[in-house]
Design a protein that fits this description.
The chain has one helix and ten strands; from the N terminus they run ββββββββαββ. With about 190 residues, the chain is an all-beta fold. It has two domains: about 35 residues, no CATH class; about 150 residues, Superoxide dismutase, copper/zinc binding domain (Immunoglobulin-like, Sandwich). The strands form two sheets. A seven-stranded antiparallel beta sheet has the order 7-9-10-4-5-6-8. The chain has a three-stranded antiparallel beta sheet with strand order 1-2-3, with no helix packed on it. A hairpin with a 7-residue loop joins strand 4 and strand 5. The two termini are about 20 Å apart. About 35% of the residues are buried. The N terminus is likely disordered.
């Protein structure tokens, strides 16, 4: 966490004023300490170009709060015959910080595999998240994880997949093609 002497709490607005840049950061109540926040701006690739959104990661006591708000997700399509369903959408952290499209038929492979720093079986990777349920193309979700702090994931990527994660197939849950990607970066100010 940041040095408490570098921030001055403003109890009226529950904000901290940074002594260096005079920016406002959100503070934990009664602590005068700023939270650490990162964001990934999500952009669809060639298979789902309308996807746009943001994923926010915020350190909270005991772990990280993850919030996602995305739109432009493809409509749900149940599995039929040998075809996998479209949605709910697998949602993961991947190990590399690249959203290079590469092959348009199999985009974002440069993001690498699921982020798995403790070498766990799939379903228990630090980068395994709940699936995204599309509601007329939009998904909003917030959840808690104790598997990482924000500083651990800077430079990793968020990937939204075409299919639901089954949380058991190794190594990646059979989530299908990668539809959208965003690189995780520090949020510098509240407007980030």
């Amino acid at each position: 966490m940041s040095n408490p002497k570098r921030y001055r709490a403003n109890p009226t607005h529950n904000r901290c004023l940074c002594w260096q840049c005079q920016s406002l950061d959100e503070c934990w109540p009664d602590s005068g300490m700023p939270t650490r926040t990162a964001v990934a701006r999500i952009k669809g690739g060639p298979l789902a170009p309308r996807i746009r959104g943001i994923v926010t990661f915020r350190d909270i006591p005991g772990g990280t709060e993850v919030s996602v708000d995305v739109s432009g997700l493809p409509a749900y399509r149940p599995a039929q015959g040998n075809k996998s369903p479209v949605g709910p959408h697998g949602f993961h952290l991947h190990e590399n910080g690249s959203c290079e499209v590469g092959d348009p038929a199999d985009p974002f492979t440069a993001a690498g595999s699921h982020w798995n720093p403790t070498n766990q079986p799939h379903g228990n990777h630090a980068g395994d998240f709940p699936v995204l349920f599309s509601n007329h193309g939009r998904a909003i979700m917030t959840f808690f994880t104790d598997k990482f702090q924000v500083a651990d994931i800077i430079g990793k990527t968020v990937i939204i997949h075409e299919n639901p994660d089954d949380y058991r197939s190794q190594p990646a849950g059979n989530s299908g093609k990668r539809l959208a990607c965003g690189v995780i970066r520090w949020a510098r100010h509240l407007s980030d």
